Every structure is written in C-alpha cells, then in structure tokens.
Amino acid sequence: MEEAVGKLWHRWISRAAQVEYPNSRVELKSVQKKLALYFHAFGGKPGLAIKPGSKEMWQARRTLLEKIAGREWQAQLCWADEESLYLPGSIALFNDRELNEQLYLWLAALAATDDHQLQALPWLDRCQQQVISTLLRWPGLSKVYQRLAKAHIEQRHWQNSHALNKAETALRRAILQPDLQIKQDVDPHLLEPVPIWLHPLPPSTQQRQREAAPEIENLSAEVTEIEGDHQRKAKRVEHSKDDQGLLAFRLESLFSWAEFANVDRPQEDDEDLGAEKAANDLDEFAVSSQSGHVKKRLKFDLDLPSSDYDDITLKTGITTPEWDYKKRVLVEDHCHIELMRTQLQEAKELPAHLRKPARQIRAFFEMLALNRTWLRQQPQGSEIDLDAYLDALTRWRLGQKDTAMGLFKEIRRHHRDLSCLLLADLSLSTDAAVNDHQKVIDVIRDGLFLMSEAMQATGDRFAMAGFSSKHRHMVRYYPLKDFNETLSPIVRGRIQSVKPGFYTRMGAAIRYATRTLETEHSAHRLLLLLSDGKPNDIDRYDGRYGIEDTRTAIQEATSKGILPFCITIDNRANEYLPYLFGHKQYVVIRNAKQLPQQLPLIYARLTESL
After folding, report:
1. 586 φ/ψ angles, rounded to the nearest 5 degrees
2. Which domains does the chain show, CATH number per domain?
3. Taking a C-beta distance cutoff of 8 angstroms, is the pair 288, 237 a contact?
4. How far apart are alpha carbons 321 and 556 in whole angstroms?
5. pLDDT tens-place string over residues 106-122
6. Of 603, 430, 434, nearest in space to 531 by CA
7. Full-prediction pTM beyond 0.85?
C-alpha cells in the first residue's frame, strides 16, 4: 500500500512540476533531413553533421514544485564545432507542435550565421548580435523569432532575489528587443536557460577531443549501440584497481553503478551484469585507460593475426595524398597502400545457392551486351534507307547526275566502350549480422559473385577489389580481379576468401582505385563503391576529417573523367552521402538481404545509356 501511494504521489508531483508538452514533442530524427537542407541553404558549413547535443545541469533556482519533485534544471542547447552541429534531441517547450518545429528551423539559421568574432563580447551583447545578424540576412525569419520570443517569455519564472530579478528583467528585454543595447552584465548560468539562443558557453573542441579507442583482441565481439535523444557526458579519470582482486570487506562498501560500470570489457570471461541498462541510467561516464603488466597488455592490445595466418603482401611502398581540411592542404605521400591477397584461397566454383540467380542475370545481361546501331547509305542491307532514297530522288530531279549512293540500311552491333571497377568495403563493421544465417560480409560476397557474372555477360572490362585500413600507414587493398584477367575459378576463390578486418580509410582506397582506372582507355569509366558505413579509422580519420578527405578524393576522380557511384546499406547514409557524392550519385539499399540481387540491376540502370 505504501509503495502504491508513493508511486501515485511521484506521478502526480512530477506532472505538476513538468514544464514540457509531450503531445507536441518534435524529435530531431524526424526533421533531420529537412534541417540539413535548411542549414546548408542558410550558408552553414556543408561538412557538419547534425547530432543531438548533451544535457547540461543548470544552476538556475527552481520553483517550490520543482524542488518537491526533485526536478533539476537540465538544458540541451544548440551549438556547433568544427565537425558537428548539436541540436536538442527533441523539443517539447511549447504547446504547439508547429512552434517546436520552427524552433529547430530558427536554431539552424542562427548556427549557420554565427560569427566566431563575436565570442569576445559579453553574453547578452553576443546573443543579440547573433540574432540581429540572422534577421538582417534572412528578414523572413523575423515573425518566427518574435513568436518564439513571446512564447518563451511567457514560460519564464521570476526569481526570489532582487538582483536575479533585475538580471531577469534585462534578459527579457534583450530577448524581445535584440536591437536594444543592454548595459547590465548577466551570468547565464544563474538564470533559466534561453533555448531560442545558442549555447552561452559551448564545450571547447579541445575538451571534447576523442582519443583512439583501445584495441582489443576480440574484434568480432557483439557491439550494442545505445541510442537516445542526447549525447552522454563523460569525464576522464585515472583507472582504479580497487575493484580488482579478493573482496575482503563488508558488502555495504561495494561500489554502485553510479561509481563504476565496466562498459568496455576486453576480457572474454567478464560477464554482462546489465551494463547497457546501467549506461542508460548514468548521467556521466567516467572513462579511464586500463594499464597493467606486459603479459596482460599483450592480450589487450594485440589485434593482428599471427604472421603464419595473416594475408600475403603483394606490394608495398605505394603512397597516396590525404586532404587536411583544417589546414586546407593536400598532404602528399600521407597514406601507405599495401596490396594484399588472402592466404587461405583456392579455386572455387560459383556457390550452389547463387547458380540459379546467376543464370537469370546472365540471360538478362546478354540481351544488353551489344548495342544496336543502324549503318545507313549501304549498297546492300536488310531494309531500305528512306532518307537516302529521298535524297537521291531529289538530286535526280534537280538534274544532278552524281546520285550514286547506297539506298539500304543494316543493323550492326558493337561492344560497349566501358570500364568498371567495383570497390568493396571490407572493414570490421561488415561482420555484423543481417539475420540468423547471414552477416553483412556474406551478402557483400554474394553481391560480388553476381556482379562478376553480370559484367562478364555484357563483355564490359571490369575489375574488382576490396579494402580496409588501420592507421594511415596500413591501408590494405585486395585486388580480386584485374581488368586484363578473365573470370575464373581462381577469381571466384579470391571473392570467397574475403573477410572483415579493421577500419574504413575510404579516401586512400578511392585514390588508388582512381589510379587503376586512369590506365583504362575506355570512353566511359565507372567506379562503384560498395560500403556499409561512413569513413573512419582509429587515428583522427573520423567525423568531418574523414568526410572531407573522402569528398576530395571523389572530386579528384570526377575531374579525371571517372564517374563515382556509391551503393550502401547504411540506413544513416542520407546524412553524409549527398555531401560526398551528390544527390544522384548514390543509392541506399534498406534491406541488406536484397543487396546481391539489387547490385546487377543498379549496374544495368547506370550503364544503359553508355
């Protein structure tokens, strides 16, 4: 009875202290595509990814109901750094869904026109200047801002302190009249947050810089991604060994989940004691680097196979440049390519489950193998050339004696002048499961098999390769079939032996594939990229750095007359592929199981006009 009454009381007091409107909530993921278009149209940096920001504790005074309910001020404000634009994961501030959605639009415009030179100004002056700059550039947003400002002012509370009320008065005047100069200096953390302005003190990029994740031996372990409407806050601490060894103290002194949660577990015998649930409950993560004796560290760090089982290196010493978007310079000879071939490979025939679809694909592509062209004005042929006949008749009536010309036409066939290189992502993410029977690498392997049959049937010149990476010094490139090589059991054996490993340094692989295609003299050259995620590596090749380098590599290929096209099974690809390839140069396959059947059809549509 006591517990039931307690639950009812908690539910009632929480609703009474609630300042949001759940029925009018707008999720960021539901408007993310629209916001990306608006942000770029407003002049925002095109390489920025849109992500939910972290929740931050605020020092503003609470009302009596909020104190009774135990509700703390948590703000999720808008700000941007060199890689991402951070917005609230959801907005339910107003009892009007349209107004909540307009707040997203306004914040995108505000962040797009933000001038870093204003950072030296006091908070109120800086925010007012940001608003004025946005409204001067986009006057149509004036009504939107006035609606948001009035609705927000109605929700703000007066404080019990005279000094705070004076500051609150100045803040309200600054919100409603951004062109009015306010002489009073206000501490933003002592008052309620202003969600229609940018973050007053955004976290610095140096504080948020991510370090390379520790490399663990069990790379194929199951990975559970914890999603939500905000980023988790974290702090870096020294690793403590107090939680190891024999428990020789009373159980009352055991650490709780709020003190320690072993989320990253490099050892196989470490049980999952509800770490995912604990991570969702934590407000802040304590992250540390575990150190120990060499024997333990070797098991922790080694992720390379023994040389007896590692792949065979065919060639080394190949270098490619890489684009540093911060310095805006192409760093020459920055990445090192290693041509590799799997050691455990042997001649293979087409897998049994692919033989029937392969026959259907071959029959379909043999119909497209040769283009038909009419040869006109022939001395003999299958049909009369009416144009030539009328031309000869006209000349004869005009008295021209030289009317000798062919009056027939005949159809001729010729091969398509096309070279295609299919480049497959073989990173560790392809080891993820598609269903109970297949992994991503399995559907990629089947797709390579069927694509080779399709391109062989058309007679097009084609090559196939895979790639993965680990640091810029080790970009592995696996040639599966060269342009001058025929499709044979040896090639099928190489396709059958592909396996996941390491990361995705996409720019270096694209540049080397571009070099290969440059040696082809076909009229049309096509680079097909097959991937399951965005560029990344364990050094700084992540986030915007990897995106910008890959985009530059794609532009380099295009400038050399090569057509890049991406086929991906990443459901989040719409967030970054339009920036990389353009809006018409990629396709997203929602169901990974359909990849093998869809690949040849996509190739047919791409090459039907060539």
Report:
1. -155, 165
2. 2-204 (no CATH), 210-241+250-303 (no CATH), 347-364+417-466+478-607 (3.40.50.410), 371-415 (no CATH)
3. yes
4. 11
5. 999 999 988 877 888 88
6. 430
7. no
